[in-house]
Design brief:
The chain is mainly alpha-helical. The chain is built from four helices and no strands. The chain is elongated and about 60 Å long.
Length: about 70
């Protein structure tokens, strides 16, 4: 959801990503084919950096640490 929102806010990035995706010769790419797309990887990583899937974690010590 966040990736699609971010792409809707940046049409030049959306166009560049679309151009890279259209280089694939199939409508059902394999994971190896998707992994070979550097711009797609950058878009996904940047989206996860900005919109973290886990906002925070709550940790509780089970025993005192000295």
């Amino acid at each position: 959801m966040w990736c699609l929102y971010a792409l809707s806010q940046a049409p030049e990035i959306q166009t560049k990503l679309r151009d890279e995706l259209l280089t694939l010769e199939t409508d059902t790419p394999t994971m190896d084919e998707l992994n070979s797309l550097p711009y797609l990887d950058n878009v996904v990583r940047e989206t996860l950096r900005i919109h973290s899937p886990v906002a925070s974690t709550m940790r509780v010590a089970m025993k005192d640490d000295v």
